[in-house]
Write a structure and sequence with these properties.
This protein is α+β, with helices and mostly antiparallel strands. The protein has three helices and two strands, in the order E-H-H-E-H.
């Protein structure tokens, strides 16, 4: 199984990737896309953080299988 991390800002990423997800599911079932919902992607800062990138990258790490 191959995992592919897909990051996209401004929310709605799952909707934007529906054609890609359908294609992968039909033709490449061994590829598993991972589309995490990450804090801060909506344009607002992460409330508890003064170091945005540290918390953002920690959230990315937590989303990986």
């Amino acid at each position: 199984m191959t995992h592919v991390l897909i990051l996209h800002g401004n929310g709605g990423s799952r909707t934007r990737f529906e054609p890609l997800l359908a294609h992968l599911g039909q033709w490449y079932p061994d590829i598993r896309p991972v589309i995490p919902a990450l804090r801060g992607f909506d344009g607002r800062p992460i409330p508890e953080s003064k170091d945005y990138w540290t918390d953002f990258l920690r959230d990315v790490e937590r989303s990986l299988p």
